[in-house]
Amino acid sequence: MSPVLHFYVRPSGHEGAASGHTRRKLQGKLPELQGVETELCYNVNWTAEALPSAEETKKLMWLFGCPLLLDDVARQSWLLPGSNDLLLEVGPRLNFSTPTSTNIVSVCHAAGLGPVDRVETTRRYRLSVWL
């Protein structure tokens, strides 16, 4: 079975504004909500027998990152939940490949990353609540 690699993208200013909007909408339903943080996760199906080399990992991180931000992609999540936090991940169903995945796979192949055969993007939320 092929491993699924995860690349987490640090929220930029745009995602911070979206988090504020999400928090305001959710506070109407959940008054205990104190904060919402988000990140993007690229879930990469890697079909090679060996894990990606340092050069291949660097290419993937470059492809998934923003050219204006330095070190905005990591292999570990930026969202570290506390004891009163809820971590949710929202994305497509895994039984079919999305058009976005098809496009990202084409870009990966053009960059020389042939073992990539599927990339699905999910949005992760950390909801902080008062209990």
Automatic annotation (TrEMBL):
GO function term, MF aspect, one: ATP binding
Gene name in the database record: PFAS
Record InterPro entries: FGAR-AT_N (IPR040707), PurS-like_sf (IPR036604)
One Pfam family, short name: FGAR-AT_N
Native source organism of the sequence: Saimiri boliviensis boliviensis (Bolivian squirrel monkey)
Keywords: ATP-binding, Ligase, Nucleotide-binding, Purine biosynthesis
One of the record's GO cellular component terms: cytoplasm
Keyword GTP-binding part of the UniProt annotation: no
tRNA processing keyword on record: no
UniProt lineage: Eukaryota, Metazoa, Chordata, Craniata, Vertebrata
Coiled coil feature spans: none
GO process annotations (BP): purine nucleotide biosynthetic process
Domain Phosphoribosylformylglycinamidine synthase N-terminal per the UniProt entry, residue ranges: 82-128
Name listed for the protein in its UniProt record: Phosphoribosylformylglycinamidine synthase
